[in-house]
Structures are given as structure tokens and as C-alpha cells.
Amino acid sequence: MPDPRFVHLRLHTEYSIVDGMARVDDAVEAAAADGMPALAITDAGNLFGAVKFFLAARAGGVQPVIGCDLAITNEKSRDHPHRVVALCRDRTGYLALCDLITRAYAENQWRGRAEVRREWLQGVAGLIVLSGAASGDVGCALLANQAAQAEALARAWAEDFPGAYYVEVQRADPARSEPQMRAAVALAGRLGLPVVATHPVQFVRPEDFTAHETRVCIAQGFVLGDRRRPRDFKPSQYFKSQAEMAELFADLPEALENTVEIARRCTYEFSLGKTRLPDFPTPGGESVEQYLRAEALRGLDAQLAVLFPDEAARSAERPRYVERLDYEVATIVQMGFPGYFLIVADFIGWAKSHGVPVGPGRGSGAGSLVAFSLGITGLDPLRYELLFERFLNPERVSMPDFDIDFCQEGRDRVIDYVRDKYGAQCVSQIVTFGTMAAKAVVRDVGRVLGMGFGEVDRIAKLIPFELGITLDKAIVAEPQLKSLIEENEEVAELMRLAKALEGLTRNVGMHAGGVLIAPGKLTDFTPLYCADGSAASVSQFDKDDVEKAGLVKFDFLGLTTLTLIAESERHIRAMGHPDFDIQAIPLDDPATYKVFSSGNTVAIFQFESRGMRDLIMKARPDRLEDLIALNALYRPGPMDLIGEFIDRKHGRARWEYLDPRLKDILEPTYGVMTYQEHVMTIAQVIGGYTLGGADVLRRAMGKKKAEEMAEQREIFLKGATERGLEARKATSSSTRWRSSRATGSTSRTRRRTRSWPTRPPTSRPIFPPRSARPTCRR
Q1: What is the model's pTM?
Q2: What would the pLDDT profile of 81-107 be if each residue is shown by its tens digit?
Q3: pLDDT for 235
Q4: In whole angstroms, what is the distance from residue 207 CA to residue 223 CA?
Q5: Which of 9, 469, 482, 748 is deepest in the core (most CB within 10 A)?
């Protein structure tokens, strides 16, 4: 392989939301295909895509260089900032860059653009700075024929970044840049500064230019054909190969060589995959492991006193609860998460003691007895046969993740408490990125092309209203759309451009519930972003990337239902029932089930949709277990089982169990495998799995990966036959795992048991035991 001749040190990906179009994977693929040894990401004023770029580059055999295209405040003309590129040489440089970007968003935005002040860069170490070519302060001075000023500016930069300041030259627009470039080379020669050649990449392929201009017009609000619109980019700003750059700068080979040298000097790599929890201050100075054990046991005794008021019954039940608690605590300690549980318990405890209604818990976290004992959840997992391994699996290490609902009106108070406790610089919310989805991108492109609203609206409405729909799928699914494209050149051009832009990042938002609590300054991990005029900061890495960077996400979800319940409780007390306690409501009240059976459930959370109301009128639930099952079944896939469930409940269908051992597991749901816990328990009882292994099986079923399922099928067959299940029955059951439908339902005329569904419901609805009712149900 010949020696590398050039490395791109300027790249605006799709995360340069106003003007970038290069998808990260496409850019890395182009670099790898050209034999480029390294590639830099330098998005405008942000590191939104840095972790994704780092991982893609490493996977593609390309050295990633992390950097940023910084806007430098121009006091003479705030609308025309100067620009430089800052590249991270090492961790010191990365931390400095995070601080600079964060400070720019917090202190120095101009019309939505975050700018760095020149004086902030004095004394900064660990960065390599490129002068910005014609857009930098030195380049602008040269363009204005102010050679003395340009020389003074360049000297100051070189003093601030000794051995790490390069005079940057470009030929993306030779007619405009050539005089400035030659003046820059001469200046560098006089001052003894190195010269580096760059190319401002905005898109990957030459044919992407029109789509890129469309992207810019969408962001700026212009029509593509408007002669007055800014035209800041050129068709040449695609991902040029090393050969093309060598030809372009044949007269400056050292400027090309310096790109390779800079890449060699930039050795910073993200440290990914290591979880970093904040320290939890224990009151007595004991270890978090000791404190967790003590608090969990204390809380368990308090919960048992409520669950079993009779002392004899409590004494009889306590050993099995303590055994489960000891197992969970040991697992939590072994996996290194005692601090996580204590942090969550602390802010939930604060919320409850300060009048903020908190939900009883939902999702897999409700399977933890430790969580119940600490007051994180409000229900007894043993009473409802919920499995701890669904939440925290010792055989598959991953972060625990509690979904915690707070009253909508009190949620921000809880976040403020966390911010005060751990420090404002250690707490923030998480960024999300809106993308150009199929319908939206058609409307955006149609507007930019100047097409009539009615025509564009008609085309957009031909795209099926389906989650995850793409334009390619829509064209296949809708013959009328395909015909329009074939018969109308304007529509064909609309769809061509829309396909090129589909899925690109369009805007920046805030995650609905995710909050980060870092073990130190957040900017030691990620820079922060805040919208102009807002005081709310969010991480620049999304929820997936902050987890990869080692930060822990805590979910603070705002739920209006909790607010309504709290208000209802207050009104009931004010209307002559001062002792009313929502936790004392019985769960076997016939009048309540009559209300449900009549379909009068508008404004009852998860039972208020038209489809659900129709379902419960058919099912006529008369016990809590029925409501739990109906809520679990009412979703795509398991919905196919609803008819069989109702017929069995009302005696219109008979069934048999494939194996007698299934009766204890499936009897509460009339033999219908309904919950993910069913999958795991049956895998344990019939297939000989550990519960940790059963959780791996459950996840494999949800992912529908053929290789994983084939592997699990063999494990199940071996375990089931060893435990007495006939090979024919074991094969029949395991084969049904591979079915594309989550059914295998029992025929009304053929008496047979439920077999394994391919995808069990994603979450079992959670309800607390009668004697431990929390403020609100989920």
C-alpha cells in the first residue's frame, strides 16, 4: 500500500444541522475505500456526532480525529464570525474543547450560533488549531489587504498554540481563494509557520450537491430557485480522494503531508464502556454496599408489616423474602450498582416527603425486591411472580434502568433537588435529534422546490401512515405514488431529493425524561448544549452515546395521570372525606369491575382508548389479574391472542397443558402465555435454564435474530428432553419460537395447550398488592 498523501481534516456531517449532509457511515466508508489512514470530524460548533463517528471510524479501520469548527466572535461584525478548526491531540485537548463549546452555548450565543471568544483560547493546551483559511481572522485580514494585521494575528495564535498552529489553505473556490491562499503561504513563510491544505467537505458524492443545497434551504427558509438566497457552498465540496487533492495541491506537497502529520499527532480516543456512577454520600461514612444491605433490610421489615399485619403470618413469610433480598443485594453488589439503587431511592424519597406524587413503578424494575424495600417501587414482586433477572441479569451485564413517573407539575422540583445535591455542573438532561422522516422530508423538499402546497400535501398523504415507513417502502406499497413518480418529472425530482435527505438530523431537542448525574463535571465526558435564550442545558451526546461514554441515565418521567390522581384525592378529602386514602382502595370491589366491564373508562390511564374500551366490554373483567392480562395483550403481536383469552375466561374454549408443569405457571391466564415472565419461568422449569439464561433467551426472541434463536433452540431442546419432556413436544414448542407471529393459539375444536410465542409483550403491567397501594397505579 502506498504511503498516505492526504487526510481530510474538515468534515461537516449531518450533525452540522444547518449545512452538513455527510452521513457518518458514508464518510468513513469513503475514507476507507480511498485508503485514507485517518479522518477528522469537525462539525460546526458541536460534538453531537463525535462518539458515533469514533465508533464508525474504528470499525472501518480509519483513525478517528475528534475536532470542531469553532465560530470566533468578530466584534467588528457579529453577523460574520471568524472560524478556526480545533483538533484534539489528547485528553487535555478534548476536555478543553468540551469546556469551550459548553461555554459558548452558555455565555455567548448570537442569533442561535454559539461563539467562542478569542481570549478564551489563551492558555489552552492539547489542541491543534487550523487558521480557518479565508474564513479565519488571519485570512480575512489578508483578503482585506491588511498584511500587518494578519501577521500580528498569526503571531498571537502561534504564541498561544506553540508548535500547534497551522496556516490553513483551501481551493474549494479557486477564483475567490487563490489570492488569499498565496498571501497565506507567503505569510507562513515569513513567520516560519507550517501550512496545511484542507478541503471543506459538506457532502460525500459530487451528485449530492443539489440535495445539499436543498438541505441548506430547508434550514434557512429559502426556496431553491431564489436568486437572492445565500450561496455559500460550491459543487466541489464533496469528499475528494487523495489523488484529487494531490492534483489540486501539486504545487504545495508539504501542505498535503502536514495533514498526515497532524493526524499522527492527534491521538485522543474516547474511553468507552466503563460505567461511572456518582458517589453516594452515606450518613455514617460506611460503604455503599453496607448501607444498601442495611437500608434494604430495614425497608423490607417495614413493607412486611404492611403486607402481613398478622405477626404469625409475617414470621412465616419472612424467610423467603429475606432469601430473595439477600440474593438481589449480592447480585447488585457483585455488578457494582449499589450506588445506583441508593441514588434513585434518595430522590424518590425526597419527592414523596415533599408532596410530589410518584408512580409505583413500571417495566422490569418492578421485579426487584430491593427496589420495593427501598421505596423505589410500590409493589411486592413476589406476590406477582416478577423476576429480578429481567431487570438485572448477572449473566448479561448492563446498566439497570428504572422508569420513574413523577407528577407532571412536581417533576422539575425533583430534578432541581438532584441538581442541588450533586452540583449543577454534574447534572443535565439529554439531547435528542429529530430526523427528516418520510412525510416530513417530502413536505420540506416540496416547499424548497416551490411546488404548490396542495400538490405537495397530496403527495405526502400517499405515504402510508406507518411507524418507521421509508420512501422506498412507500413507493412499493402505494401504486399511485409510484405512477406519479414515473409520469411526472417534477415529482420524480422531489422524491430523488427527498430520498437523499431522508433520515438526516433536522433539529435538536431534549429527551423527555432522561437526566444525567455525573461523578464530576459533565464536561469531562461531553460538552453541553442549550438553545438560545434557554437556561436548560443538555448533553451533546444522545442517550445511547452518553451510556457508551460511561454516564448513567436516570429517567424522570412526567405523568399527568399522577397529577390528576393527586387532585382527585385532594377534592375527595375537601368534599367531606378527610380520611380518604387512595392506598386503602380495595382491589376486589365488584362495583369497580362493573364500571370497567361497561367500558366507562375514559381518562383511566391505559384503558381509555376506543379499542381498549371495546375489548374490556367483551372481556368483562372481574378480577385484577384480568386487567393486568388485557393490558399486556393489547399491543401488536400478542393482540392475536385476545379472542382465545376471552373465550377461555368465559368457558367457550377448552385447553390442555402440553406438560403438567405448565399449569402452575399459566393457570392465572387461562393457559395463554401472556407475559415475558412466562417465557423465562417456562424456560427455567422445562428447559433447565437459569433465570439469567432465560433472560438472554427472552431478549433473543424479541430481537428475532435467526442465529441467536437457532442457538437457543438447541439449548432448550437439550434441557427439555433431559427434564422429561418428549422430544416431539420439545421440538414442536421450540419450532414455534421461530414463527413470525406471536401466537400459536389453541383451536377451539382441538384441545391443546398454548405453545411458545415468538415475541412476548414488552412489559408486564404492574399493580401493587392490596395492602400496599401507592399514590398512583401504572
Answers
A1: 0.85
A2: 999 999 999 999 999 999 999 999 999
A3: 96
A4: 20
A5: 9
